[in-house]
Amino acid sequence: MWIRMGLLAMLLMTPVGSGDAWADEVKIVDVKVRGTAGIYHFSVTLRHADSGWDHYADGWSVLEPGGAVLGTRVLAHPHVNEQPFTRSLGGVKIPVGVKQVHIVAHDKVHGDSPAPFAVQIP
Questions:
Q1: What is the residue extent of each domain of the chain?
Q2: Which of 5, 38, 40, 122 has an alpha carbon within 20 to 30 A of 18's alpha carbon?
Q3: Across the strands, what pairs with 86?
Q4: 91-98 contacts: CB < 8 A, separation 24 or more?
């Protein structure tokens, strides 16, 4: 699984220095969520300088506040000429009482996005 550390550790890791070092990492542009009764559908928009099969955004995950993975959307190919792009994942079970989740994106070179994207559950 891509997520190798707890959410707390990810939140504590912040880029140091100029933003240029992080320029090629996948960025979460927008997240839309809908659903009821604990089952939700996520539409996540990503931006990444996909350059081909060796370097592209290859997925994103929905995480509980404690870091547990609730769902993962694998992206099977590069989106070189489609930026930003949106892909969806349905059937994500959110435990009762969870009011916020985090989205973490992943690319083949840099790994997980440096900052989780917080999303309120309707």
A1: 24-120
A2: 5
A3: 45
A4: 91/39, 91/41, 92/35, 92/39, 92/40, 92/41, 92/42, 92/62, 93/38, 93/39, 93/40, 94/35, 94/38, 94/39, 94/40, 94/70, 94/121, 95/38, 95/64, 96/38, 98/64, 98/65
CA atoms of 109 and 15, how far apart (whole Å):
16
pLDDT tens readout for residues 9-51: 333 333 333 333 344 788 899 999 999 889 999 999 998 776 7
Q: Where are the alpha helices (DSSP H) in the chain?
A: 7-12
CATH 2.60.40.150 fits 24-120, yes or no: yes
Instruction: Report d(CA 22, CA 116) in Å as an integer.
Output: 14
pLDDT tens digit string along 61-71? 999 999 999 99
Question: Is 51 strand, coil or helix?
Answer: coil
